[in-house]
Write a structure and sequence with these properties.
This protein is α/β, with parallel strands linked by helices. The chain has helices at residues 10-21, 37-42, 50-65, 77-81, 122-126, 145-156, 180-189, 259-272, and strands at residues 2-6, 25-29, 68-70, 87-90, 94-95, 119-120, 135-140, 160-165, 193-196, 198-203, 207-212, 218-222, 225-229, 233-234, 246-249.
Length: 273
């Protein structure tokens, strides 16, 4: 078959590689000038440079397997509709949630005070788009590398970092890799503060009010910026699909998750083609 993969994040990369390995004619397009999507940004965090090595490995595999890789290429619905591919794989990923919504506060549709500015996503921080100042509070809802790694990177830059998490300890989701203890130890050595079992109740522009999930008590922490590591929103610019083409959605385009799930989903789909 002729396969078009839209998006070169984890799901798209693995779908394209495996489909080509199985003998399909594969073209993968990416709007950015590099492969990897937001996962590539994680390679900029301390102790995670192997992610960048993985991105290079995928490009080498594409060259070996005859995959056509087109970077700096944005396709709209009309472009895909006239493309000769029989199969379209949408792996367009996800975007940070700009509302500041917290799963632990489901009655609050947005973070009070977010309109004051100074609230950033970890992606904006790692792309060096965020204007942070010297004192940064990081709300880490996922308790994984997205928040922990960003906090570590900022602490190594000399920022005064406070991690706020609703979980019982920082790095809960990376405990299965035994990296959580190392990360907390290094953060402590760098002077980072850790506030567990708390959520964010308001941003003030120059500080953040946090609330204990155990007692309900609140306190205000001074901060020049707030980084909200909350669940992303799926980015699917093609909800209608394409007539005459088998269309599949994989990775964060279908539902935002950790990268491992996206790689698995890309492989699973390609094996089914």
């Amino acid at each position: 078959k002729s396969v078009l993969v839209v998006g070169a994040g984890p799901a798209g990369l693995e779908a394209a590689r495996v489909a080509a390995e199985r003998g399909h004619r594969v073209e993968i397009v990416e709007a950015l000038p590099v492969v990897g999507g937001q996962f590539r940004l994680a390679g900029m965090q301390p102790r995670r440079a192997q992610i960048l090595d993985l991105m290079g490995w995928y490009e080498a595999q594409f060259a070996k397997l005859g995959v056509t890789l087109r970077l700096n290429t944005y396709l709209d619905a009309d472009d895909i509709a006239v493309h000769p591919a029989e199969v379209v794989v949408l792996a367009t990923g996800s975007l940070p949630d700009e509302t500041g919504f917290q799963r632990w506060l489901p009655s609050e549709p947005h973070l009070p005070g977010i309109e004051a500015g100074g609230v950033w996503s970890p992606e904006a921080v790692l792309r060096r788009e965020a204007r942070l100042g010297d004192s940064v509070v990081i709300y880490d809802e996922g308790s994984n590398w997205r928040g922990v790694g960003t906090a570590w990177a900022l602490a190594e830059q000399g920022k005064k970092v406070t991690i706020v998490t609703p979980e019982a300890f920082v790095g809960k989701e990376i405990a299965r890799t035994s990296a959580d203890g190392l990360a907390r130890r290094r953060l402590a050595q760098l002077g980072a503060k850790m506030l567990t079992e708390h959520c964010v109740s308001r941003w003030h522009g120059n500080g953040v009010t946090v609330r204990s999930l155990l007692t309900g008590a609140e306190e205000t922490l001074p901060a020049s910026a707030l980084v909200m590591c909350t669940t992303n929103r799926s980015f699917d610019p093609f909800p209608e699909g394409f007539a005459g083409k088998a269309t599949h959605r994989i990775g964060d385009c279908a539902a935002p998750r950790l990268a491992a799930y996206a790689f698995h989903e890309g492989r699973k789909l390609a094996l089914s083609l």
